[in-house]
Write a structure and sequence with these properties.
single chain, mainly beta, globular
Amino acid sequence: GTARIWYAVSGEELLKFSHDGQVWGAAFSPDGDRLATAGDDGTARIWDTGSGEELLNVPHDNWVRGLVFSPDGCWLATAGVDRTARVLDATDGREFAKVRHDSVVWGVVFSPDGRRLATASDDGTARIWDAALGEQLLEVGHDGGVLKVAFSPDGCWLATASQDRTARVWDVASGAELATVTHPDQVWGVAFSPDGNRLATVSSDRTARIWVLMDS
């Protein structure tokens, strides 16, 4: 039921933040002054990382599975068991957009320019939306639930991790599938390298792997 901040060098616990149930995700704001947490108590919360004070508590209709700040720190996006992802004002909690899937939304991520939101859902799709308007711009599919999404550093590619044992890279403009990599078990996470040339994946097969997408 807690999220904690630790001093990375010594392992000293600096702050502890509590929910009324399990905490499924935590994300720092770009400036590091705030921490957002996602709980199965049906709330997303924002905390001051200096004082530990709770700055914002936004109720949802069900468990919150993940969240992320926009690149400028002004918005917070949340992913929920209620089949929605929401874009909220990170200061007062006002809801700007709510988008829907046909099943649980596992992950959310903003594009590097903050204009688009990508969502990963148990309905077997990843979708890209206009973050401000909530209009769907793209949908791509897997043969199982999609658990995680990540934009490449330039925002041109989207990577997806799936229960179908694959991670895939898609062209954001056309939706074309550019690459597929395979694990022996479910793929739970994906991340691009800072130069966008490699993809890291983590899986239930107990491995993390790095794949070359293009030569440096």
